[in-house]
Specification:
heterodimer; A: 256 residues; mainly alpha; 2 domains; two-stranded antiparallel sheet; 10 helices; 4 strands; elongated; B: 563 residues; Sodium/glucose cotransporter; two-stranded antiparallel ribbon; 2 strands
């Protein structure tokens, strides 16, 4: 900053010589780029986003009223099971898992013939029991036992997939042995359904836009922008400042 | 010395070999390979610390201004890349999806502010510590004392998260309880800092940086290769993993007829989970406001952290200070480009409900384990996590100890204290801090990244406004600084009171008024979004209406700092 005997006042916004003015302008440009790139982009993301439901929620909403009234057809119950399994396959809280597991199991058992229910329940318990003490096994024994359990799980899924309207290769069939309860005399209340509605909404409505649905280098574009590009930009901004300052100081023969 | 070390290593390994754990569990008991790697790394650190030990107070505080630009950049990166970066960031993205990226950009974007507004000027001002600058610039011993106390609080808050990380990794490696792991880890890092001081720390930081990056990147190469993603460039290669999480991975995923699976045999498959990557998704419980507030708070906190600001005193001149930021940020970004990859792969590998709830802060290590990476490489990864925490803690201890002995005791109470006693005082301060941090870390108040973010908000509300105005506006005077600091501290106090009561009381809403609203708008990890602007405005207003800054301060700023 320019100085003289009388006035040593210094302010970023009031540079008093060409060097400090150039420096101020450079800082302002870099800060504006920084602000727009970070905050401007996210305001834009916010402005253009729309809440978009997953297919599982749309299907769930189509059948839930009939299910609640106890008037659902087989196909509607199958749709219900498919939708709820779609959320049970996500990372959700234990209490939410308990609620969804209950209503999924209740509806799934309604799709299974009476004479098969006890057998199904027994298989679920048997698979759960076979997993106990797995961690005490040696690595080789563990691998062997785990493969055996996995085969049992696949077989179990296949054994009821047609009743539940699931394709054999649908990943949801693999969830059945762990997510279906062994109690086939469950009762489900309207409160349970109300809670399930909230959980389904929470996990299956997402803020999406052209920025989130466009792919770039394998990423959703907005994710690439924030996780990769912004960091590159920060390094570049710092580099530009260091380089330009050096050049500026040389030009004005200033040490600093 | 060699004999002693060999005997120590051998003695340590006897129980290790007797208690070798099965890889069929993620936690388990003593892990031999990882323990050997950790011990080897710690011994290296201590030896380097001894070789480059501090010989006087100047060395202890600021390494005698002898560090090069690239070296200093590496030290900045290592100092910066803490347990929060190494473990915490992946944990936040694993738990909160896209919201976790607010920490990634917050902890890197702040360097732009630091660069264009402060780095060179701080070096030209030529003070040892942040409180030193504040005391001198605002010509006030009281402010120096308060700044020193704030700096100590910031260092403590920052260290708590680090000790949490050290505890988790020691627990994982040694197979001991968390509390014991925190105590042992804390004792080791304390001993190391006391022996080496900052000169050793700086040398160590360069070694630590290399260890941190290598240990972080090797498992990622292996994981991406194993699960058939583009592994040659992990920061880009994991993009397809994110997209696969959004769209789902239909079962079974196969390579050469073999089904891809995690270590438990669960298929590498998952149902569509867009909540992982979509912004402020309802499933994460985090809002747009919180994303922005965290990004902003972490950015200005970065530019106000005493132990970061202090690093600019160890380069020879302002030009080197600027280039050390460029290098430092580049080195930091290498890790930050990679961290989201762990959370993405961890998400897929742990999606089977049977895996159960995993400690988020250890997800980096669990991901490697779930991907069935060789235990020794997982051990290297865990040792890298410890290394990251160590490098930061030692820097923080030096900053905290400097604030205690140099800024508080010597400058305020005992200006005539001899150099030898000053060093003793610095070491006493370090021990005191270590004890406090250990005790707080045992409570496990929040995720590592969130605990560290508290320190950032505190720095953003207090130190940042004083540096920003102190450097760029000579009109900012002592009265303005005091008023601004009070405003910043008041916001901090409210936010932290609500946070601590919320964590310790069963019904905090009955104890504190408007509990929900205050904890939302003044969250403990982002209260600086309002605290910092408030402190700046108060500082300016009070300065305008009170006695001007003395002419000698203005002259120094105009002539020495800005030329």
């Amino acid at each position: 900053m320019e100085t003289n005997e009388q006035n040593y006042d210094l302010s970023f916004f009031k540079p008093t010589n060409p060097r400090t003015r150039s420096n101020r302008n450079m800082v302002l440009v870099l800060l504006i780029v920084w602000i727009v790139a970070v905050f401007g982009f996210h305001f834009l993301l916010r402005a253009i986003e729309e809440p978009v439901p997953e297919e599982s929620l749309t299907k769930y909403q189509n059948v839930i009223e009939s299910v609640k009234k106890g008037a659902a057809s087989v196909q509607e119950k199958q749709t219900m099971v498919w939708s709820v399994l779609s959320v049970l396959g996500k990372t959700i809280k234990p209490d939410e898992r308990a609620t969804l597991g209950k209503i999924m199991s209740y509806n799934a058992y309604q799709l299974i013939p009476e004479n098969k229910k006890a057998e199904i329940a027994s298989t679920i318990e048997s698979i759960a029991n076979s997993k106990e003490n797995l961690s005490t096994l040696s690595n080789e024994e563990f691998a062997k036992k785990r493969a055996e359990i996995k085969q049992n799980e696949i077989n179990f899924g296949k054994s009821i997939s047609s009743n539940l309207g699931l394709e054999n290769n649908d990943i949801r069939t693999q969830l059945l042995s762990t997510q279906m309860l062994s109690d086939y005399n469950l009762t489900v209340t309207q409160d349970d359904y109300a809670t399930a509605d909230k959980i389904m909404n929470k996990y299956t409505i997402h803020n999406r836009s052209v920025l989130t649905d466009t792919q770039f280098l394998g990423f959703p574009f907005h994710y690439f922008y924030t996780a990769v590009f912004l960091l590159i930009l920060f390094v570049v901004l710092c580099w530009v400042y260091a380089y330009q300052t050096k050049k500026l100081n040389k030009k004005y023969n200033f040490e600093g | 010395m060699k004999k002693i070390i060999s005997i120590a290593v051998a003695l340590t390994l006897i129980p290790a070999l007797a208690n070798a754990a099965s890889v069929t569990e993620l936690e388990g008991s003593f892990k031999v390979g990882p323990a050997i790697i950790l011990i080897a790394i710690l011994i290296t650190f201590v030896l380097v610390g001894i070789i480059f030990r501090a010989k006087n107070t100047s060395d202890f505080y600021a390494a005698g201004n002898k560090i090069s630009k690239v070296g200093s950049g590496m030290a900045i990166a290592s100092n910066w890349m803490s347990a929060a970066s190494f473990l915490g960031m992946a944990a936040l993205m694993y738990g909160f999806g896209y919201h976790g990226l607010s920490y990634v950009i917050g902890w890197t974007g702040g360097y732009v502010l630091l660069m264009v507004l402060m780095a060179g000027q701080i070096r030209k001002y030529g003070k040892y510590t942040a409180p030193d600058f504040i005391g001198d610039r605002y010509y006030s011993k009281s402010l120096r004392a308060v700044a020193a106390i704030v700096a100590i609080f910031i260092s403590i808050a920052y260290c708590v998260g680090q000790f949490g990380g050290i505890g988790l990794m020691f627990k994982w490696i040694l197979g001991i309880d968390y509390w014991l792991a925190v105590v042992i880890g804390g004792a080791v890092v304390l001993a190391y800092t006391l022996i080496s001081g900052m000169l050793g720390v700086t040398k160590n930081m360069q070694i630590q940086y290399v260890i941190i990056i290598i240990s972080f990147i090797i498992p990622l190469f292996l994981l991406l290769y194993k699960y058939d993603y583009m592994w040659l460039l992990p920061p880009v290669g994991y993009g397809q993993v994110v997209t696969d999480i959004v769209n789902g991975i239909p079962a079974p995923a196969m390579i050469d007829g073999v089904s891809l699976a995690n270590v438990y045999g669960h298929d590498f498959a998952m149902l569509p989970s867009p909540e992982y990557a979509m912004p402020w998704d309802p499933a994460t419980g985090q809002s747009f406001f919180q994303f922005m507030a965290i990004s902003f708070s972490l950015m200005i906190g970065t530019a106000g952290l005493p132990h970061v600001l202090q690093r600019f005193y160890v380069v020879p001149n302002a030009n080197d200070a600027r280039w050390s930021v460029v290098w430092g940020l580049f080195f930091i970004c290498i890790l930050y480009w990679l961290a989201p990859a762990y959370s993405a792969l961890g998400k897929v590998l742990s999606i089977n409900p049977e895996v159960g709830a995993l400690a988020k802060d250890a997800i980096v290590v669990y991901t490697a384990q779930l991907g069935d990476i060789h235990p020794l490489i997982v051990g290297l990864l865990a040792a890298g996590g410890v290394s990251a925490a160590f490098s930061t803690v030692s820097g923080l201890f030096v900053a905290g100890a400097s604030a205690f002995s140099h800024d508080l005791v010597v400058k305020v109470f005992r200006p005539d204290m001899e150099a030898g006693k000053q060093l003793t005082m610095a070491r006493l301060g370090t021990v005191f801090m270590a004890v406090i941090v250990t005790l707080i870390a045992l409570f496990k108040f929040a995720l590592i990244g969130q605990l560290v973010a508290v320190a950032f908000s505190l720095a953003g509300c207090t130190i940042f406004p004083l540096f920003l105005l102190g450097i760029w506006w000579s009109g900012s005077n002592r009265q303005g600084a005091v008023a601004g600091l009070i405003a910043g501290l008041l916001v901090s106090l409210i936010a932290l009171t609500y946070f601590i009561v919320g964590k310790t009381s069963e019904n905090p809403a009955d104890v504190l008024p408007m509990y929900e609203q205050v904890t939302y708008w003044l969250g403990a990890w982002y209260f600086a979004w309002i605290g910092a602007p408030l402190a700046i405005i108060v500082n300016i207003l009070v300065s305008k209406f009170t006695k001007p800054t003395p002419i000698e301060i203005k002259k120094f700023l105009a002539e020495e700092v800005h030329g």
